[in-house]
Design goal:
- Two copies of one chain form a homodimer.
- In chain A, a hairpin with a 6-residue loop joins strand 1 and strand 2 (15-18).
- By secondary structure, the first copy, chain A, is an alpha+beta fold.
- Chain A has helices at 26-29, 122-140, 177-193, 197-208, 249-269, 307-312, 321-329, and strands at 5-8, 15-18, 60-63, 69-75, 89-92, 95-99, 102-108, 147-154, 166-172, 212-215, 219-222, 233-237, 275-280, 295-300, 315-317.
- In chain A, helix 2 (122-140) packs across helix 5 (249-269).
- At the A-B interface, strand 1, strand 2, strand 6, strand 8 and strand 9 of A face strand 1, strand 2, strand 6, strand 8 and strand 9 of B.
- Strand 1 (5-8) of chain A pairs antiparallel with strand 6 of chain B, so a sheet runs across the interface.
Amino acid sequence: MKKSELRQNKVTKQWVIYSPARRKRPHDFGGAGKWHSLPERDDSCPFCPGNDAALPSVIWELADGEGQWQVRVVPNKFPALTPGGELSRSQEGLYLTMQGHGRHEVVIESPLHNRQTGMMPLKEIERVVETYHKRYIDLMAEEENMMITIFRNHGARAGTSLMHPHSQIIATGMVPHHVRWREEEAQHYFDEWGRCVYCDILAQEQKEGARIVYENKSFTAFVPFAAEVPFEVWIMPASHAADFGSISDIEKEDFSAALQQILRRLHLKLDDPDYNYIINTSVRYRSGEPQIHWYLQIRPRLMTAAGFEIGSGISINPSIPEEDAEFLRDE
Amino acid sequence: MKKSELRQNKVTKQWVIYSPARRKRPHDFGGAGKWHSLPERDDSCPFCPGNDAALPSVIWELADGEGQWQVRVVPNKFPALTPGGELSRSQEGLYLTMQGHGRHEVVIESPLHNRQTGMMPLKEIERVVETYHKRYIDLMAEEENMMITIFRNHGARAGTSLMHPHSQIIATGMVPHHVRWREEEAQHYFDEWGRCVYCDILAQEQKEGARIVYENKSFTAFVPFAAEVPFEVWIMPASHAADFGSISDIEKEDFSAALQQILRRLHLKLDDPDYNYIINTSVRYRSGEPQIHWYLQIRPRLMTAAGFEIGSGISINPSIPEEDAEFLRDE
């Protein structure tokens, strides 16, 4: 790839520019290395054990044999959405508004303030995944939640202010255009070819191999062909499944192992970079559909989206997906 | 607005969450105040006069009476796209690729290294606008350029590394989904109501007044009803016009005056915040269409988009558009 090349994301139809002139090597990005100096406990951290008075309440927790909680779910103290609103839309002239109905929860991933997710033992990652699944099922049981977004913001560049390891869950009473668009593109593909586009992507990735980072029995982790940012990774169930909620106990183990491997490699090889991850899954009423396929998407925050990206929706990625995959492939 | 509220962007149909629990006052954001300490000239800056050897070439310049260039257009030294590629698409299995054809130019806005765009006299802003227009017309004269994006990245959080005041122009040989989507939504509205959605937005904004920041004879600047970030401002021609290229000389003066006012107020009232601005205009073949309306969009970078935004496309804005407009309204 000497001149720059554009690649289309098969799932969203977005194009990405790969520019050799803007190319960087992995060590040119440089993570933040935040993990060196934190204490095990911080008196001012609302998520540390013993500081429970700062929490609005506890929704759910997973304790060890001695009664110490290991993972905890609490309401977000500064919620973007709160339950109890109307789901109807109202008009203000030509504009539409809705009440801010929804749920906004925090998953505290460890009692240890300085426990880095990237260095967590498998057992602890499994507890986090178990918690995601539990909350997903419980929130989907509330009829008014149309979509559950499970995500993690790691580091300041990824939008978090608290260092204590945590992720978040937001349930909304509507499905945004962005998600509907992804689903419609999958529907178009299904109408054209009769197959799930994600299953076809997975088949091509497995055949080519160049972008695969890690595989186990039920999950494949790869750098997508049209990755929008350096070292973007998708962790996808190898068998067709629209709904994260349908994950089995054995799959949870494999999913945790894949997540652990990817977070660990990012942590060690890129010096603890800031990142976001998101579980992209089906919305209510589409969980059984043959064209949707859930996956976890990790986006390291090594670059800054600028004016061109905002205006055009085209990302400029200085990294080459095949090289990123190779860099992350060895443990 | 006590509970949180969702608002729909009429142009993109995206929803935005306004959350009082996450609310901040203007001074809580805090700009970077980058303008205090820069020298007038920097020997290591490739854009400073006298350092021309570092420039690949000069595409165009606007000089004063004494022959000193005042605004200059040069090729980007690290171009995302370069001219001469094929526009055809090729298939790699189920994926699509294209050669990276296009143009990537830099507009050096002043010979002074420390000239802050936010503090520029009107005459200088007019030169920059004149240059945008000139390059827009020239680049549109090349048949293979399908879309011209003019944008400015101000400050590190907005994605720039060079402090010398500059903006950029990228011409692409394709129209991305993101832009087509905006155009299709405008088409739907036109098919439904027979009017340009932007003209209708402008009419409602003028009637309500609460989100208007600045107006002159041919331009209106306002905080959009569903602003995705704090202090987002759109500067829109008051009369219907799809194409930035069609701007008249008198309109250029009014546009420059509006741009100067908004940049100045952001600079002074928010301590020189990082921001991006983008001119959203019609693409080739759509410049005469009755449903498209060009505008300049300014997005201060006071917040960080995180996992929820990436996954759902829903922004969480802690600011209230009416309050932002009021804050920016007085000079």
